[in-house]
Fold:
Amino acid sequence: MLTSEYDSLVRQLKRSSHLPVIIFPSNLPSITGEADAIFFMSLMNSLNPYFITGAQALGINVIREQGLEAIPMAYIIIGLGGAAGFVGQAQCIPLDHPEIAAAYAMAAETFGFRFVYLEGGSGVAHPLSPSYVSIVKKNIAIPLIVGGGVRTGMEAEDLVAAGADIIVTGSIVEETGDHTVVSELVEGIRRGGKRR
Structure:
């Protein structure tokens, strides 16, 4: 997407909602001063320093010049990792070792990150298990974001009940084009919050 189109999209989002627009950057070109804030991510389990601190060092001047609030977030890729794991050159944490993800999350909290994001991988077939999420959440006090493979309200509900504070989804809307699925996911999140 061209920068002008991206800026225009963010402006449209802001006109349509009173909620702040927070950028989830894919790389330096996805920084726009039209947003309110940016997740200042570090891919904790990348094998490439560019994704841990390099892109951040290259982008911080633009972020400050644009007046964006930078929200420190630890990004941790789990399982097969999908496209995010491949692109980010992650040493993905095995699905049968949630204690490793918990250790990364605790380290992130100690570093001062304000959020931890467990990414099951963009476009993966199944979300992380609720038990995996629960083990990580029990070890940190900061908000836990969970994404990757969340396609139904029931999946979102179970993840929130297990400890996810925020659910990220996108592939299901892209795949189906059915925006009513968003309502189903929101209702699942509400039910999960009540079960917690």
User: Anything to note?
Assistant: The chain has a mean pLDDT of 93. The longest helix spans residues 49-66. The CA atoms of residues 72 and 114 lie 6 Å apart. The chain has one domain: 3-195.
